[in-house]
Amino acid sequence: MGTPTPSNPLAAAPTPPGADVRERLVLMLAKLMATYGIPAHRLEEAAAGCARYLGLEAQFFATPTAVFASIGGEDGSQRTHLLRLEPGEVNLEKQALVDGVLRDVLAGAADSGAALGRLEEVVRLPARFGPAVVVGAQAVASANAAVFFGGGWREVLAAAIVGLVVGLLGILASRVRRMARLVDFAAGLAAAVLAFGLAGVLQPLAPTMVVLAGVIVLVPGLTLTTAVTELATRNLAAGTARLMGALTVLISIGFGVGVGQRLGAEVFGVVGGPPQTLGELSHAASLAVAPLALAVLFQARPRDWMVIAPAGWIGYLGARVGGGVAGTRAWGVPRRIRGGAGLEHLCETGGSALGGSARPGHHAARAGKPGLSECDGVRRGEHTGGRGLRVQHAARGHGARRRAAARERGGDAAPGPVIAGRCVATSCARRAT
Description:
Strand order of the largest sheet: 1-2-3
Distance between the termini: 47 Å
Helix content: 55-70%
Largest sheet: 3 strands, antiparallel
Structural class: mainly alpha
Number of strands: 3
């Protein structure tokens, strides 16, 4: 969703008093569209089209934080305006209201004065959903994300708690301007520490999955999509600036999560275990709830929910179909995230991903796939039995079989990917012994 900002980002950028009502309308329209997240190419086309309809010659150049407008009158004079603004939260209701005003102006249903008054009413309009409802929706969205990631009831409960805390931080940051610049880092830090703390109470729990589900609402997915759209339409300045802003948010969250994980591991110890997936029925229930939670977070009108929900279902089905075409489950990525990515994949596929046909780790995968704790234990040499020992045997067997296959082919060295896989497997086994 992005970093919260003060509730009225337009108050600091008044319309020039010397401009006539048509010019004030066009400038206000461009300002609102930029504030509520309209892509640059749509903003420039809509504002320029409205100006032409009103008898003005205008050119616009939009970026995420400023709009340049050069407007000429019928007497040949021309004025250039710089509209500096702070990007606000995405508000789908206000976007729809602004689009409605623009349509009425172009259709001749509203004159410039009436349209300008309606835009000013849009600015003063309070958010449809208050802070308490938004925080609750964020907790629900995080819980549903944990379901989609393949978590069990412990992960769902922990993700809801983490999402609630992250939502409270966002509300606090929206009221304290200085904190708004650190909310992404603070949210990642708080989510990671809280997830490790909950892992000590709700065992077994996959804390990495909980962290990802807890901060998923802060991930600027819509901003990234808008940036790619602007780059594709050759609005390079706006697209690059928006893309860098989204990457900055991601980096801030990542640094916060990294620091929080290290701090949580030191305070609560390295804890975690494989989650118990709730099953397909839980996905169906989440599909009914998640779009509504996101509609609340984006301040959508209830009449638009009937469009938002099917769009979410189509996106989910597209991910499932895409995952099937790629040969992986749509929710298989979190299994790699929750620990033991390299060795778990090695044990599960028997080295097939590295170019081999043997399955030396099949017995370990059948008995129980190693998770974060087992693979970390193998790396540190702490496991001497159980699944940790089976991971060691799988790693050794993989390397031995690769060397035997190379000798049968009459070669001294295996292909590059095999060497990489053998190094990973034998290195973990050597450290464990």
